[in-house]
Amino acid sequence: MRPTYFLSDLHLRHPDDARTQRALAFLRARAGEAEAVYLVGDVFDLWLGYRSAIFSAYFPVLRALADLVDAGTRVVLFPGNHDPDTGLFLSEHLGVSVAVEPHRITLGGRSVWLEHGDVHDPRAPWRRAVNRFARHPTVHRFARAVHPDLVWAAARVYGDALRGAKGYHGLPPGLLASFFPERVAQGADVVIIGHYHRAVSHEAELHGRRAEFYVLGDWVEHHTFLRWSGAFELFRDHGPDQPPEALPRGDHAPP
Fold it and tell me: Which fold has domain 4-252?
């Protein structure tokens, strides 16, 4: 039985960036080893699905995804608030499956709910409004009318501004109080999301059964991923030359 991996919020940028190189090394190591890799949103710091152009800085990332698919690993990518418009290139040319809506899979006889999680952000109504706006098809059409070089430059400014916030404040409590129980009430045994840049492993008895909740962290500070190989376990990557660190239940700050 080959393992299945879940990652989110890689926020990949320039191929020479050390963080991007570390994430690429992890993905390349999964080729042939993994049954599936689920990339649960914000894989790219920016992605717009132009009809006849791609951002050249992402060529190494795209090649790594294609190599995964060629090695027999299923790759499923979810749009996030930074890469809401996947376009057709990923699916038509790389063989990547795109999950535009929340996604259900079954692993080990358990129902698993997957989504990026940005449109449920409980921290403020304006956050949810902005994220829904970014996903609207009309917005995507207008954005693609702008030259890719201009979009790329604007995205760098936007991304740098977001990374200016400091401090770790833990997971928004509304996710555990309402979002997680609601998904379990809809039949999920395991709920997996990204977006919040928190690495969380949580377990609870809800609606008469054991349920698990995972928030995938990121590859900006946490370098975390979730692995299923008969059971779910959250790990922190320490680079290609060291074994990953298994994380216990809880809300984990960056190292």
Answer: Purple Acid Phosphatase; chain A, domain 2 (3.60.21)
